[in-house]
Every structure is written in structure tokens, then in C-alpha cells.
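Training component of the fellowship. As part of building independent skills, the fellow (R.M.) carried out the full modelling exercise for a liganded target. The chosen ligand was fe (ii) ion. The inputs are recorded below so that the supervisory panel can assess the work.
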Amino acid sequence: MSQISDVRQQGIDYSQRVPNNVNLSNDRVLQRALEQWQPGFLNWWKDTGPVDTSTLQVYLRTAVSVDRDGWANFGYVRMPEYRWGIFLVPQDENRRIHFGDHVGSPAWQDVPGEYRSPLRRIIVTQGDTEPASVEQQKLLGKTCPSLYDLRNLFQVNVEEGRHLWAMVYLLHRHFGRDGREEAEALLQRRSGDPNNPRILTAFNEKTANWLAFYMFTFFTDRDGKFQLAALAESAFDPLARTCRFMLTEEAHHMFVGESGVARVVQRTCEVMRDRNVRDPEQVRAQGVIDLETLQRFVNFHYSVTLDLYGAEVSSNAANFYTAGLKGRYGESKLEDDHRLTDATYTVQEVEGGKIVGKSVPSLPALNARLRDDYIKEIEAGVDRWNRIPAKFGIPFSITLPHAGFHRKIGNFAGHYISPDGQVLSQHAWEAAAPKWLPTDTDHAFVDSLMGRVIEPGKFANWIAAPARGINDQPIEFEYVRFD
Ligand SMILES: [Fe+2]
Ligand SMILES: [Fe+2]
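Fellow's submitted model of the complex:
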């Protein structure tokens, strides 16, 4: 299909330009709102999206419908011409609310007045993360380790842009003037801007190099997955349906992260074996990332991402659940009363210089529960990474720090917890921190490895080639064209 020729038509037909399954061509109000928002979006992309990319042709997948062969259409696209579409999985007319106080009532097609403000807040908070990550990653293309990786970065970027569209659609369609103002504000905030930062802290951190990018897509995009999964259970049906579709794209982002780190580990282990080096300094001298540094990056990205779940005990979390706005991970598959009024859950806290488990009512502990579900998936991914050194006979495994380590939000904030879960004094913790978290020297070293490799089929020295290419293309495929 001729996507590029389509979008080059100048008379803008939004129902064409914005591929959608929300009947855009028949919704005048919505079309007008999007017509006003869209130029601002493109300006935002130009200002803060990936730098110097407007003329590149990138082998991207574009969603043009939600069915099997529609959601991943591959072809060369100039990124500013990417068709950021609006897709919801098809409506199930019989869908009923399956948790909270309204169990059994039909799912809402419109926002109930009483939940307008919390729903708007949920959508804005989710929506804000999408452009934020694009901003965090804007410079990475300059130092890509291969064309394959460059293409994956850009794929993630355009899809985060599409996720912004998905949330803005909900704001425009269901929240009237407030929604339009929020949609505008989503284009105004900037990651890391002291005056107008993104809402959540992890999205104001720098993603300074490709190791950080893979860590981010493994750890932080997976938080995105769990938040979207919880919202995919929502009684507000358009939100549930849009999140379900976003989850299909999110899977690739996490793949980029998991396989990216795995390829770094693979390459380091190859070099350690072939040149018989073990000491981190010797390993670094070979131009690859020592596993100790990798562990410190894991500690950082994991702990910063855990903060995204909010406080372990939160009345908002309870209210969102009871109202039916945000469910648990896999809510519909869980077997209990889906009200949780009498249930309890164990959360950890610091008491008398020790970390202790404490049984609390389940409802306010839902953030902790979602975070614990997330941790299980993270552990499985780390186990897969650890098979690599084992295969090389290298006695090293990556470990996840205790959930209390390096936390700014929740029960552990203000405490000094070591990666193995000891409660320390501030002094002792700070003295040991350079062993646990990436230092300036670590950053400088990793940054020093970042060059730019754009010859098809070639990879930077510090990372192994992937097992296979994208969409069954060979690894040496020209994933990005510079002409
Ligand atoms: Fe996203
Ligand atoms: Fe993502």
C-alpha cells in the first residue's frame, strides 16, 4: 500500500491522514479538535523528537487497522510522515464491569460525571509518559550501534508518539474543553525541564546512551505494560480498548530492551572468554561493558522504575479500583470476589531498623500488588540474561536489588537500604553507593564506547548482532536509508 503518497497529499483529509477505527470522518467535533492539535504535535516532534531524522527513510511498521495483517504494515517511511493512527480494539457490546462497586453493570461508553476528574488524571499521567520517552531518547540516533538498532529506536519513538495520540484522542473525545487543554499541555511539558517537567520522575531522567536505552525499554516500558494492562480492565470502555491495542506495540519495545541487554552480555562474555580477561578494568580495556557496570545500570533503572508504581499504600489506588477505573494485572483471570473489601495483602516497610512484612487491607495496597506482579516478570527476564554468562562458564549473575533499594517514593523513601535489603545509616549507604549505582566514571566509560555504526550488517564492538532481523529481513538489511 502506498502510505507515503497518501500522506503527501496536501489537502488534509484527517480520516485518511490519521488512520483510525473510530469513525473519524463522521465525527466533526473530534476532527476539528484534532485539526487544531495536530500541527502542534508535528512541531513538538520536530523540536524534541529524534534529531536530524526528517529526511531518513526508515523501515517501520505502521498500524493501519487492528486486525492481524493491519497492525504491522512494514515499509520505508520518512518519520515526520509516519501515520500516527488511532486504534481501539473492537467494542464488545456485552462487556460488563468486572471489578469494584459496579460489578455487573454495562461498561461505560462515556465518562460518568462523578469519575471525570480521576479518569482525566489517569489518562493525562499515562499520556505524559509517551512523549517524555521520545524526548529522553532524542539524541541516541547519533550514536547508534547499528542500522538494525537505529531502526528499532525509531520504531519505539513513533509508537510512543502514537500512544500520545491514543491518549489525546480520549481527552478530545470524552473530556470537552478540559480535555483539549490537557492535550495541549502534553505538548508543552518537557522531559527534564526544571520549569515544566514531565509528571513522573523516571521520565525526567536522561537516557544518555544505548545501554541506558536498553535498560529503559526493558524496565520502564514494562512498567508501561503493567499500567496499560491495569487500565485495559477499566470500566471506561474506550480506555480499556485503546490500552489493549497499545499493549500489542509495547511488546516490541520490551523486546528491544531485553534483547539489547542480552546482546551486550553476550558480547562481553565472548570477549572475556576469547581474550581470557576477568577483571572489570581488563574487560573495559577490550572496549566492551564489564558485567559489574551492567549490574549498576540494572540497580539504577530497576529502582527508579519501581517508584513509578507510587506508594505501596495509597487511597487513590483503592478509590480507582472501587470505582472500576483501574483493575489489577490480569483482573479478569483472577479468581476472587473482585471487590477485595475483606482481603489483605502483605507490604513491606521499615520498622525498628529492619524490613518487615505487614498485612494491610488489599484495596489501598493495589500499587504494591501491581509492582509485585511486575517484579515477577522482571525476574524472569533477568533469569534469561543470566543463562548467557552461565553458557560461557563465567561465574557472574545479574541480581535485582531489594525493592527498598534507592527509593524515593513509598515506604522505603527516606531509608537507606542496601541492595541485599539491609537497613543502613545514611553515611554507610552513601559510602557504598559507588559500588551499587553507576558513577560518573561508569557513565563516561559507557559514553566513550558510543560511536555511530551505520554500515548495513555491522555492529559496534560492545554489542553482539541480534539472532534475526526485523520482519524476516536479513540482519544486513538496509533498515534505514540516508539518501
Ligand atoms: Fe507507550
Ligand atoms: Fe513503550
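The panel noted the following from the submitted structure. The pocket of fe (ii) ion (ligand 1) is lined by residues 130, 160, 163, 224, 250 (CB under 6 Å). Confidence is low (pLDDT under 50) at residues 1-11.
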